[in-house]
Amino acid sequence: MAMSTLLPMAEAIGAALKARKETVTVAESSTGGLIAAALLAVPGASAYFMGGGVIYTHEARRVLLGIELASHPGMRASTEAYAQLCATTMRERLGTTWGIGESGATGPTSNRYGDAAGHSCIAISGPHSRCTSLETGQADREDNMWRFAHAALTLFEGVLRD
Question: Side by side, which strands form the sheet with 49-54?
Fold first, then answer.
């Protein structure tokens, strides 16, 4: 997979957001910035993309999102609830209509929580919210990153159609 695979979806999302005068932010982890990069590759992205971050470590979560998991008993990264928390928190911090959150295990091995390589949880926060999990069954780190980003944009496209 490559950016050319994500771009048509990002263009459709960008057009919908512009037409509705809505905005989006992204809090992604195992996609490493690919979701934001796809959305930003569309000319005129400044009309709808307000910012975001790659929340890859506990320190990044604390500093960029202000989230301490001690305040959320039982929560851990790489879950739908965590992806939703990140999406909602980033959306609230930047004052956007929509937030996209993603957290997972790209590979080639499992993450610290025991989730197999190829595991990702994706959430959309906004007027309509939705979460999903993806299991690619693959250990290929780069391929998983592209698949996770593709799944996130697909989910967001679907939510925008609701």
Answer: 49-54, 24-28, 98-105, 119-125, 130-135
**What letter represents residue 130's amino acid?**
R
For residue 28, the 8-state DSSP code is E
Q: How confident is the model at residue 70 (pLDDT cuts 50, 70, 90)?
A: confident
The CATH number that applies at residue 65 is 3.90.950.20
State how many domains the chain has.
1
Amino acid at 13: I
Q: If pLDDT is split at 50, 70 and 90, which confidence band does 2 have?
A: confident
Q: Choose among 109, 85, 100, 116: nearest CA to 158.
A: 100
DSSP secondary structure letters along 113-161:
T-PPTTEEEEEEESSS-EEEEEE-----HHHHHHHHHHHHHHHHHHHHH
Domain with 23 in it: 3-161
Residue-wise pLDDT tens digits, 12-47: 999 999 999 999 999 999 999 999 999 999 999 999
More confident residue, 1 or 48: 48
Pairing of strands 119-125, 24-28: unpaired
Assigned token pair, 4: 């050319």
DSSP designation for 109: S
Measured CA to CA in angstroms, residue 36 lies from 101, 135, 139, 151 at distances of 11, 21, 23, 13
